[in-house]
Amino acid sequence: MPTVLRYQGFSFYFYSHEPNESPHIHVDKGGASAKFWLEPIALARNMGYTAVELRRIQQIAEKHQNLLLEKWHEYFNR
Fold this sequence. Notes:
Elements lengths: L2 E5 L2 E4 L10 E6 L2 E7 L2 E7 L3 H13 L1 H12 L2
Antiparallel strand pairs: 1-2, 2-3, 3-4, 4-5
């Protein structure tokens, strides 16, 4: 489970056993979790975040989209 970014208390990571899915990132903080697609940035699922927190996570993912995609492709060799 490689963590590729820690930002403002959020951990952005992906599971190593999900190479057949489209690029995405999981985000955890304080017991809440979400999954965002990376192309384009879009919420896939939410477990515990408020709408305000989800907007903030989306902003962070958009700001770091190139890094997140680079790490995804680097890890899965795609």
